[in-house]
Amino acid sequence: MKTKVIEFERYMEEKGLKSTTQRDEIVNTFFNVKGHVSIEELHHTVQKKNPKIGYTTVYRTLKLLTESGLAHERQFGDGQARYEAVTTEEHHDHLICLKCGTITEFENMKIERLQEDVAKEHGFKVKNHKLELYGYCKKCRNEVK
Amino acid sequence: MKTKVIEFERYMEEKGLKSTTQRDEIVNTFFNVKGHVSIEELHHTVQKKNPKIGYTTVYRTLKLLTESGLAHERQFGDGQARYEAVTTEEHHDHLICLKCGTITEFENMKIERLQEDVAKEHGFKVKNHKLELYGYCKKCRNEVK
DNA sequence: GTGAAATTGAAAATTGATTTCAATAATAGT
DNA sequence: ACTATTATTGAAATCAATTTTCAATTTCAC
Q: pLDDT category, B88, cuts 50, 70, 90?
C-alpha cells in the first residue's frame, strides 16, 4: 500500500513530526498485514524484521495512524483494541465468529440508509457508527449446537 | 420494578445463593436508576443509601444480574462497562451523543431483517448483535460545528 | 557539523476488571 | 434458639491492557 504510506508521510510533515526508521517499518508492516491486528500482534510481526522496535513505539505509531484517519481502532469484546487499515471511503461493518474469532467485513447500503432515517427521527446527527453481528461462521456453525 | 426484583430472588434461590441486605439494596437501586450505569456510578448511588456497601459487591451483583438475564453488559467505547436493565424481550440499539454522553435507545425491525439477510449471504448464524450510532443529539448538534 | 526539538524504549504508573482471604452473616437442621 | 455449614462481604492484592515518564538517542533545519 504505497499510497497509504505516502499519505502517512504527508500527515507527519503537516504535523511537524519526524520520519524515523521505526515508524517506517511499523507503518509498512501495518499496511501489509491483512485484517484486524492488536498492538501486541503487530509488535510481534514488526519484531521479526527488527527486534529492536519496542511495544511503546508500535502503540504510539498506531495512535498516529488512527489520528491521521488511516487506521480505525475497534473493540470487539475480546479485551484488547484492534486496528484496521482504512482502505476505501466506504464504511463497512463486521461479522464476528464467537468460536474461531474470524472477523469478516460487509457493506450494506440499505442498512446505512435506514440508520440515517432512524437518526433523523431523533434529530440526531450521525458522525460514525458501529454494527457488529456476533455468532457462528459457516465453518463453525455445524460444530456448535 | 417489583417484578424484576422477584425474578432476581427466584434466580438466587434456584442457584442456592443467599439473600442479603447488600444485594437487595444494590438490585433495588439498579432497577430504579434509568439508563446505562457503570459499576462506579451504581456504587456511588448505592453508597448514598448505605455507605458500607463496597465496590466489589456492586461489581459481583451486576455480574449476577447479567448471568440471570436481567441486565445487559455493554461497551460504549468510553473504556468502562455499562449495565442496563433488560425490560422487554425486544432487542434495541443505541444512539450515543459524543458531546453530552446521552444514550438513547431505538428499535428498527427493518434493520434487524436486513441484518439477517446479510448473515445468510455469508452462511453466518447470528447469536446477537450491536448497532451503535455515534454523533450529536438534537440538543448538542447546534452547539457543535 | 551543531543545536533545538522530537523520538525511542524500558520501566513505572494508571485504569478498569477480577480474585483472594479473613471476618461476618445467612440458612438448614436439630 | 443454637450450632454447623456454607455463602457473602469488602479491603487489599492481582491482573491485563493501556498510557505516561524520562534519560538516552536520533532527526532535521540551519
A: low
